[in-house]
Amino acid sequence: MPGLKTLSQNRELIHAILDTPWSPVAKFRLLSSGISPNNLLEGGDEVAGQKACIACGNCVDACPVVLRERRRVDLQTERTSLQLEQIVDEECLRCYRCVQACPQVDGKLKIVATRHRLTEKLVHWWMAIGYLLLAATGIAMNHFGRDWNDFFYMLVSMAHKCGAVIWLSSPFLFFFFDRYHFNRMMKAVFSFGRKDLAWWKQAIRSVFSKEKHPFQGEYNSGQKYWYLIIFLTMTVLGVTGIIRWFWADTISGEMMAAFILVHIIFAYVIDLNFAYHFGRKLLSRAIQWFRLMSRETVSDIVMSPEIKGTVQRLPGVKEMGIVDPHSQKLSA
């Protein structure tokens, strides 16, 4: 976009679009200079208005919200960016895959979108690495540490402390390198109201009935709960871990045993919540993708009468024995 680096209002406009939980691909297309030179269209002169959506459907196919619910896939009667906005509505995850998939968005704007939440994503993985190291070494020491020699126990203990440093430093790194999005997250997580109570009621009812799942967009009440669990356990585990690390020799045995018990209890709390978080975010999406890929075959495609007639008139179709999968007999 011309003047992107020099005009502050352009940067503010783009950041406002990217920070809004709404599909940004249509707006980014309008901010671009036209269709990408890397497109696969034959003859750009045939495109009327190069900034108009060409209905390639790339953004719809790339959206994880569309893939998450089968019913949304069935709504793809119009494969356009505006239709994507209607399908996803406010449940946009701000992953910007739609922007990356659109052939009409300028390459520089795609880089801007990729870098916009880069710090947040890096801190997320930094925290995940620290937690996994903490969980593995903590469980190992708690259940199997009595069978180890002193040297091996010391190595695992040092790895546990390194994991603690990585995990506890995550929010400080996020605040230092991206204060704006850190404050945005804190404001959203620590805001409560009647909508959160209604969300949990609907979530509980959806478990025992066929009622629609509650709002699944950014900073929904379930996501708020997950962040609060992280903040709570991080605080308690950090304090009890530091006490055990630095003041083990200055505190009585009964008091230290109490601190260790609290440490273990909150470690189990974060472990159980992480197991659900992992299954909800990764395993469920993988299962949904696998089901979609394994069930959708050529026999599932319903052809209109016009297309079916055209196909049947092609040379060699009857000789090949192509049948209508729904009537299970040779089409006339």
UniProtKB/TrEMBL annotation:
Domain 4Fe-4S ferredoxin-type: 43-72, 84-114
Top-level taxon in the UniProt lineage: Bacteria
Biological processes per GO annotation: respiratory electron transport chain
Organism: Formimonas warabiya
Gene3D superfamilies per record: 3.30.70.20, Transmembrane di-heme cytochromes, Chain C (1.20.950.20)
Protein's UniProt keywords contain Glycoprotein: no
GO CC annotations on file: plasma membrane
Spans through the membrane: 125-145, 151-177, 225-247, 253-276
Name assigned to this protein: 4Fe-4S ferredoxin-type domain-containing protein
Recorded topology in the membrane: Multi-pass membrane protein
Location in or out of the cell: Cell membrane
Database matches in InterPro entries: 4Fe4S_Fe-S-bd (IPR017896), 4Fe4S_Fe_S_CS (IPR017900), Cyt_b561_bac/Ni-Hgenase (IPR011577), Di-haem_cyt_TM (IPR016174)
Alphabetically ordered keywords of this record: Cell membrane, Iron, Iron-sulfur, Membrane, Metal-binding, Transmembrane, Transmembrane helix
Record carries keyword NAD: no
GO molecular function term, any single one: iron-sulfur cluster binding
